[in-house]
Design goal:
CATH topology: Four Helix Bundle (Hemerythrin (Met), subunit A)
Helix content: over 70%
Structural class: mainly alpha
CATH class: Mainly Alpha
């Protein structure tokens, strides 16, 4: 084979290897992004959906307990329930809220405030509104959790495809390497078998 043809073949093989290497690096970066999305989604499912649903459940229970005690409860009991409610509200405030969830949460806090200052005739109305807001928030947790779950599944599927692509690129790189090793051995054998002109 003449020298220009050899250089052209080497350039083509080098270009193919470069494309494979760039593909592997790009795929690796893409895989890391998908893993970060999965991590974010799983963390959000736990912190912003599961724990938020627990806070809602606890708030609902405490409100029912407070309503059952009524105005006959000792001030110390009422204060303990109010502290528990305030603690749960603080925890829920620290979760990531959607626009709809934020509106329901504001409504709940307004109705709770009204319930706490209402007279005996109107407190039932505000209690029912606050409980209704909690029920709506609870239903929203399931909807948002399902949405996050679907996003997580999508990211996991993309990660699996990315891993398969990376494996295929690595196999291609290995095959090209073996071909190059075989070709270089053949070239060396041809050089050894050539008779010397001297």
């Amino acid at each position: 084979m003449n020298r220009p043809l050899q250089l052209q073949k080497r350039f083509q093989i080098g270009a193919v290897l470069l494309v494979l290497l760039v593909g592997i690096v790009w795929n690796n970066v893409s895989s890391k992004r998908n893993l970060e999305k999965v991590d974010t989604s799983v963390t959000s499912i736990y912190n912003d959906r599961l724990m938020a649903a627990t806070y809602i459940f606890d708030l609902s229970n405490i409100l029912y307990e407070k309503a059952a005690l009524g105005h006959t409860a000792a001030a110390r009991q009422q204060a303990a329930l109010d502290r528990s409610i305030a603690d749960l509200i603080h925890k829920y405030d620290n979760t990531m809220l959607t626009v709809k969830e934020a509106a329901l949460w504001r409504s709940f806090k307004d109705n709770l405030r009204q319930y706490n200052i209402a007279d005996a005739h109107s407190e039932t109305v505000f209690f029912n509104k606050a409980i209704g807001d909690l029920k709506a928030l609870s239903a929203l947790q399931a909807t948002e959790g399902n949405s996050l779950f679907r996003k997580t599944q999508s990211s996991i599927t993309a990660f699996a495809l990315s891993s398969n692509l990376e494996m295929a690129l690595a196999v291609g790189l290995g095959i090209i390497t073996l071909v190059l090793i075989g070709a270089s051995k053949d070239a060396m054998l041809n050089l050894r078998q050539r008779p010397s002109l001297n």
